[in-house]
Amino acid sequence: MVDVKEVVELNLKESKPPSIFGLTLSELEQWCLDNEIKKYRAAQIYRWLYPLRAGSWEEMTDLPLELREKLTAAFSFFVSEIESHQIASDRTEKLLLKLNDGEFVECVIMREPNRSTICISTQVGCAMACVFCASGLAGLTRNLSTVEILEQIVRLDRLMDEQEKITNIVVMGIGEPLANLANLLPALERLHEGKTYNFGTRRVTISTVGLPEKIRELARIGKRYSLAVSLHAPNDKLRTEIVPVNKNIGIKSILEATDDFFEQTGRRVTFEYVLLSGINDSPREAKELAALLRGRNAHVNLIPMNAISLLDIGGSSAETARAFSNLLNEAGIVSTIRKRKGADIDAACGQLRLPKVHDKIQLSK
Fold first, then answer.
1. Based on the number of CB atoms within 10 Å of its own CB, is 295 exposed (0-12), middle (13-18) or buried (19 or more)?
2. CATH number reported for the structural domain that contains residue 200 in this entry
3. Is 106 a catalytic residue?
4. Among residues 51, 122, 206, 292, which one has the fewest Cβ atoms lying within 10 Å of its Cβ?
């Protein structure tokens, strides 16, 4: 019989039945057989859970009442709860989810014409402590489970209109994704099952501060996920000031790992570069970055820093960002400037954080 608690991998004291989203289709089929339910019912349940976006067992109208009662007794529909739901002026939406142990995490939908990208989190808090980012202000609490990652995707999908669907996923929310690969990869794998979203790996981008061995591990799994590396500086001295964990890593090791990733997967690596006014946005840094990446099949995504009230650092002006991008492009390095989405609800890059962090930090000063 399927060990549901092992499948769900919460590693928490259960206060409610485990989430139905913790089971793969084959595991749900086995649960049906163990409970004297015909195996084909599992595919029906999966259809309601994913493409039909059911919100409760009662909506699964082609299932017998007895089966719905058994499902209700055995599983929670969700183990997370929506604490708040915000909608920005540009139609970006952000969910604050309360988890089974009382912790919180945020996730976002960003919309463009013919494109709906969701941004998901992988940890409660973050240990990387990048100086421009709100997500790590209170440090790392714990990894998210596979179910907690998957439920973000499912909940965001249910916010969409009937004709709207997820086109892209960026794993760039709270936390360092490569530090939680063990739980992230099974959640992403679920998306490729034909009876869920049949979602291609090429439309998933995994972001990292730059953990060389984990980058190589991601390459070895044989999936064609896109990789984005948060570089933010062209030399180790400056990068360590901006990204403190760089002290124990170094840009050389990161680039060697990304070269290996490209060689094994054929996927061009994106280097993210948050522009910080007067810190890393001068022509000198642009030229140094161009020299660093010359000869690599790389793309630089420039990100003007978004305002964070707790931090004294400011973002570069639009004029400075354009000048920086032009210098890279002139040197043969493809670069783009990321559009700001959802800033008025603190849903833009670097703004996601745990609730009450602001109060905690202010009280500690």
1. exposed
2. 3.20.20.70
3. yes
4. 51
Residue-wise DSSP of 94-152: EEEEE-TTS-EEEEEEEEETTEEEEE---EEE-SS--TT-STTTT-EEEEPPHHHHHHH
pTM score: 0.88
Angle, alpha carbons 232-235-240 (nearest 5°): 65
| Interval 48-72: pLDDT, tens | 999 999 999 999 999 999 999 999 9
363 or 117, higher pLDDT: 117
Residue 67 shares a structural domain with residue 184: no
Examine the domain organization and report whether 188 and 226 are in the same domain: yes
Short-list 303, 294, 297, CA closest to 336: 303
Q: Give the lowest-confidence range in 35-39, 131-135, 166-170, 233-237.
A: 131-135
How many domains, the chain?
Answer: 2
Both 85 and 69 in one domain: the answer is no
The answer to whether the beta carbons of residues 226 and 202 sit under 8 Å apart is yes
Rounded mean pLDDT, 20-44? 96
Gap between the Cα atoms of 272 and 267, Å rounded: 16
**Domain shared by 31 and 145, yes or no:** no
Known catalytic membership, residue 93: no
**pLDDT above 70 (res 8):** no
Same domain, 111 and 192: yes
pLDDT at 331 over 80: yes
pLDDT bin (cut points 50, 70, 90) of residue 340 is low
Distance of CA 158 to the CA centre of its chain: 17
Residue 23 pLDDT: 95
Q: Report the alpha-carbon distance of residue 278 to residue 235 in Å, rounded.
A: 16
- Are 128 and 59 within one domain? no
CB-CB contact of 142 with 12 (8 Å)? no
Catalytic residue among 9, 93, 106, 272: 106
Same structural domain, 321 and 181: yes
Helix (H), strand (E) at residue 91: none
Q: Print the domain residue range for 150.
A: 81-364
